[in-house]
Design brief:
eight-stranded parallel beta sheet, 2 domains, Rossmann fold, 12 helices, eight-stranded mixed beta sheet, about 325 residues, about 35% helix, alpha/beta, 16 strands, ornithine cyclodeaminase, domain 1
């Protein structure tokens, strides 16, 4: 038996967004039905290097799914300037649950971008107004690209407003998508007026004001991934229909972690988890809803589901590099 090595291009080519969205939605459903094992994300803090490591293992056993894996990911904010490396890097090990054989080692950075976009698309499909046609994006980094790629699968997006203090990043985004959408740079307030808003920044104090958000805007709060981080004015999350991906992770390190720690939010303020909406146990958007917020921290089951899609298609297409990682001699 051989292990399949899949680099950035291999993962990108085989993580077809339509399929990844379906897989991530199925992962949320499996989580809701209790058909997964997913220990809490663990952190190794590295203040000496202004960074941290995170480990994210999961196992899914639901219907056609029988998949396991672990993602080893970092956040080192000094990487671009000091080492010419991305702030976030990841490696995914995708294993056969029957015998623990490592079926694939793949680029977890591209995998993360794809599944993060797909998670926003699943939430958007269930929580935004059905005829949403405008998308605002705050933060024009690498995560912003898959937000548009994924959300445009579930909604007929025509207009995109991207806000970032880095003019060159905004221009790169426009250059990438300008032929497909009506894309322009704008302020955070202009982005927040769109039908859908995705925030993908690492800030530790709110940058989206409640007064700027449209009356029926759906917000994907994707940036907060550690205690102390939050992007949205507390008035937004305290008044919105608030949907989370995972209770423990969101209260610890998601968008709601700051107002939660200050006692401004409690269990009664949470509408529910996205998995309950996906399965129909809870309603998604209703005509009475105003602003809706999806607090996404990123779940290991999303990585496993996406890795499954990538591995299966890569095998079909004979992509990647097979190599002997494990000595299978008994």
């Amino acid at each position: 038996m051989e292990t399949l090595l899949l680099n950035r291009e291999d993962v990108g080519d085989n993580a077809r967004m339509e399929e990844v969205i379906v897989a991530v939605e199925e992962a949320f459903a499996a989580y809701q039905h209790g058909n997964v094992q997913m220990p809490a994300k663990s952190y190794i803090d590295l203040p000496k290097y202004n960074g941290d490591f995170r480990s994210m293992p999961a196992y899914m056993d639901a219907g056609d799914w029988d998949a396991a894996g672990i993602k080893w990911v970092n956040v080192h904010t000094d990487n671009p300037d000091e080492f010419d490396l991305p702030t976030v890097m990841g490696t995914m090990i995708y294993s056969d649950p029957r015998n623990a054989f490592p079926l694939s080692i793949m680029d977890g950075t591209t995998l993360t971008r794809k599944r993060t976009g797909a998670a926003a698309a699943v939430a958007t499909d269930h929580l935004s107004i059905p005829n949403a046609s405008s998308l605002g994006i705050v933060g024009a980094g690498v995560q912003s690209y898959t937000q548009l790629e994924a959300i445009s699968v579930v909604r007929d997006i025509e207009t995109v407003v991207v806000a970032d203090k880095r003019e060159d990043a905004v221009q790169r985004f426009i250059d990438r998508f300008g032929d497909e959408f009506d894309v322009r740079g704008g302020s955070i307030a202009e982005a927040a007026q769109c039908d859908i808003l995705s925030t993908v920044t690492p800030v530790e104090s709110p940058i989206v004001d409640a007064a700027d958000v449209g009356d029926h805007t759906h917000i994907n709060a994707m940036g907060a991934d550690a205690p102390g981080k939050n992007e949205l004015d507390e008035e937004i999350v305290t008044n919105a229909k608030l949907v989370i991906d995972d209770y423990e992770q969101c209260t610890h390190s998601g968008e709601i972690n700051v107002p939660w720690s200050r006692g401004l939010l409690s269990d009664e303020d949470l509408y529910g988890e996205l998995g309950a909406i996906v399965t129909g146990d809870e309603a998604g958007r209703t005509p009475e809803d105003g602003v809706t917020v999806f607090d996404s921290t990123g779940l290991a089951i999303q990585d496993v589901a996406t890795a499954h899609v990538v591995y299966e298609r890569a095998n079909e297409q004979n992509n990647g590099t097979a190599f002997d990682l494990v000595d299978t001699r008994v």
